[in-house]
Automatic annotation (TrEMBL):
This is Twitching motility protein PilT. InterPro entries: PIN-like_dom_sf, PIN_9, PIN_dom. Transmembrane segments: none annotated. Residues 1-102 form the PIN domain. It comes from Salinirubellus salinus.
Length: 125
């Protein structure tokens, strides 16, 4: 199973106290593969150069993204890239971004998002 990570998914451990990889292990079958679009890596790098909690979360997210395979794409923006890569890889996307989730559902892409305070759940479109 292929899984694409969005920017805010990688920032969840700091911002929402979500144990991202433990949760993915809990809800996904063994052997899933993680992917991250290059635009997400760029967005994390920009956000981490600031100050405050968001910068810390982005810095941690950039470190966590090293567990995923980076993917090149043609899309100029991170959300577009997530959708493009998810379609190409027939992947499930991890995101807590409601507008992106809605776009993914419209495209028939399954989404893993926050359920309750710090648990994840998989949702089919």
């Amino acid at each position: 199973m292929n899984v694409v990570l969005d920017t805010n998914a990688l920032m969840m451990p700091v911002e929402l106290d979500v144990r991202l990889f433990d949760e993915l292990d809990r809800i996904l079958p063994p052997g899933y593969e993680l992917f991250v679009p290059e635009a997400v890596l760029d967005e994390l790098a920009k956000l981490s150069s600031g100050a405050g909690t968001e910068a810390t979360a982005a810095s941690v997210g950039a470190d966590l993204a090293e567990r995923a395979t980076p993917v090149e794409h043609d899309a100029p923006y991170a959300d577009d890239a997530v959708l493009e890569v998810a379609r190409e890889l027939e992947a499930t996307v991890v995101t807590n971004d409601r507008p992106l989730r809605d776009r993914l559902f419209e495209a028939g892409v399954p989404v893993i998002g926050l359920r309750g305070h710090n648990k994840l759940e998989r949702n089919e479109p």
